[in-house]
Amino acid sequence: MVRDLQITVDCAAPAAQAAFWAEVLGYVVQPPPDGFETWDAFLDQFGVPAEQRNDRSAAVDPTGAGPRLFFQKVPEGKVAKNRLHLDVRAAPGLTGEARMAALEEVADRLETLGGRRLRRLEPNGMDEGIIVMADPEGNEFCLD
Question: pTM of the predicted model, to two decimals?
Answer without folding.
Answer: 0.89
